[in-house]
Amino acid sequence: MSFTQVSPGSKVLLINSSHSDPSQLEEAKSFLMRQVTESGFVNIEKLSQIVQGDLPNSAYNIIYTNYFGSLASAHNTSTLSKFALTLVPGGILYLKEPVLLSLGSAEVPITRTTQDLISELKLSGFVDFEIKNATKVEMNDLVNIVEQVWGITDENKKKDLVHSLNGQLHLVEVVAKKPTYEIGASFALSFAKKAANGNGTTKKASIWTLSTDDDELVDEDQLLDDDDLIKPDKSTLTRPDCETSGKKKACKNCSCGLAEELEKESKPAPKAQTSSCGSCYLGDAFRCSTCPYLGMPSFNPGEKVVLGGNMMQDDI
């Protein structure tokens, strides 16, 4: 493949999988070292170690994976997310991966199409996808993928997989970019920005301040005429049919509350109710609602009464 797009000063990561060709990997590293010059560097990391561990954040401009041999394995979402984290903002991932032409009923380790792979890359944080090419995996490479990449040695199962995947398994090359901002970065929205005063502290926004021109407001004094400013005479506030002296008497259409007050005064006071307390011994008919003897039979005056059940016990 061509590495002419690598510029001086680039930090490049080459992924070494279990099926990579060591000679191709070293050849690619030697070529890229000349491309990046002394201001850049080229590292090789084993895929197995990346799966089990982590990569440094924002450390590389370019990553190449599954490029160093005719065999390729699928990357899971976790590994793709680690690639996204270790790329600098705007970094590029060059990826080769086997995909199915269409999803079938055969039980195979590969369960996604090209569009499914793009969806996985989106979920991992990548944008701006370019599918450079997709080639059918030839029969010889298909057998090697089943044996060496997927580790299937059973002859019958291997034969069935090769037969079902012949013409259906493709090797797709995808170029994906990391956004120009760091993953997890936060930005202040334009309407949330606040101006700072001279002391460097945030000035509190006047949210409820009405901003308008003075000539649009009406002078409230202009809404009143001369008659509105005259203080009314007390005599004009009294209805002619109201009795203002002597015995109080409500007018026919009284609305000041005097009629209700006079009606209340004219009603006789309610008779005071006599209490039946002291007659508890006569029975419930002579006992109040809170009497402790309520519900018990009558007894003779002065007779000692013992309350039954738990009535003599504390509630607490």
Helical coverage, percent range: 10-25%
Radius of gyration: 47 Å
Shape by Cα distribution: elongated
Characterize the main sheet.
Answer: 6 strands, mixed
Strand element count:
6
SSE arrangement, N to C = EHEHEHEHEHHEH
Structural class: alpha/beta
Termini separation: 88 Å
Q: What is the number of helical segments per DSSP (H or I, 4+ residues)? A: 7
Report what the structure shows.
- A six-stranded mixed β-sheet has the order 2-1-3-4-6-5, sandwiched between helices.
- It has 316 residues and is an alpha/beta fold.
- The chain contains seven helices and six strands.
- The mean pLDDT is 79.
- The chain starts with 10 loop residues before the first strand and ends in a 50-residue tail after the last helix.
- It has helices at residues 22-36, 47-52, 77-86, 114-123, 139-149, 155-165, 258-266, and strands spanning 11-16, 41-46, 60-65, 87-100, 127-136, 169-177.
- The longest helix has 15 residues, at 22-36.
- Pfam families: Anamorsin_N, CIAPIN1.
- Residues 277-291 are annotated as: Fe-S binding site B.
Furnish the topology, listing elements before pairings:
Elements: E1 11-16, H1 22-36, E2 41-46, H2 47-52, E3 60-65, H3 77-86, E4 87-100, H4 114-123, E5 127-136, H5 139-149, H6 155-165, E6 169-177, H7 258-266
Parallel strand pairs: 1-2, 1-3, 3-4
Antiparallel strand pairs: 4-6, 5-6
Motif (Cx2C motif 1): 277-280
Cofactor: [2Fe-2S] cluster; [4Fe-4S] cluster
Protein name: 15978_t:CDS:1
